[in-house]
Amino acid sequence: MRNCLAIAGRTLAGVGVAATLIGPVSTAGAQEVPYTFDVDVDVQELHERVSDLHVRCAVYGEREGVALGQGDATQKVSDGAFKGAVRVAVSMSEGNAPEDAQRYACRLRLILEGADPAKPNPGSGNIALRPRRGPPFTPLISGDL
Fold first, then answer.
1. Would you say residue 74 has pLDDT above 90?
2. More confident position, 6 or 94
3. How many helices and strands (H and E) does the chain possess?
4. Extents of the domains making up the chain
5. Can you give the pLDDT at residue 114?
6. Around 16, how many Cα atoms within 13 Å sit in the side-chain half-sphere?
7. Which of 17, 107, 125, 127 is most buried (most C-beta within 10 Å)?
């Protein structure tokens, strides 16, 4: 594949988050997806109500905080843990060109059973997700493209 770029990973408190930019990907009969990220995730000893992981990646241009495109992926959690890559295809929003993207950010969210991954966890309040010993839980990785 062209435009392969490995992005340095960070290992943080039971969560290893690293992203690898795969490059443009196209499938037969579908529009080319300009950015595809493999986001390495390592979570352990999650609260029993956590059923899924949701990863959202977005690309940004010159304007701070305005995404030019984004993509989402959801992964099931088994026995309170997940370790592996979550592939996220990022499509550009209408009127934005892939070459205008300068930065990326991928964020990990924990989803409670029965919740819609597209919405914040309703009524979750502050379920006791207390960090273990070690560095704090940091569910974000970002950098330059």
1. yes
2. 94
3. 0, 9
4. 5-144
5. 79
6. 11
7. 17
Backbone angles phi, psi at 100, to 5 degrees: -85, -15
Per-residue pLDDT at 67 exceeds 80: yes
Q: Which residues of 61-72 are buried (b: 16+ CB within 10 A; e: fewer)?
A: beeeeebbbbbb
Q: Residue 13, by phi and psi: left (phi above 0), alpha (psi -120 to 50) or beta?
A: left
User: Exposed, middle or buried by CB within 10 Å (0-12, 13-18, 19+), for 37?
Assistant: buried
- Per-residue model confidence (pLDDT) at position 75: 94
What would the DSSP string read from start to end of 76-134?
E-BTTBEEEEEEEEEEEPTT--GGG--EEEEEEEEEETT--TTS--TT--S------SS
d(CA 59, CA 57): 7
Q: Which helix (H) or strand (E) holds 42?
A: strand 35-43
Residue 21 in this model has a pLDDT that exceeds 90: no
Distance (Å, rounded) from C-alpha 36 to C-alpha 38?
A: 7
> Considering the domain 5-144, what is its CATH architecture?
Sandwich (2.60)
Q: Which of these, 91, 133, 129, lies nearest to 108 by C-alpha position?
A: 129
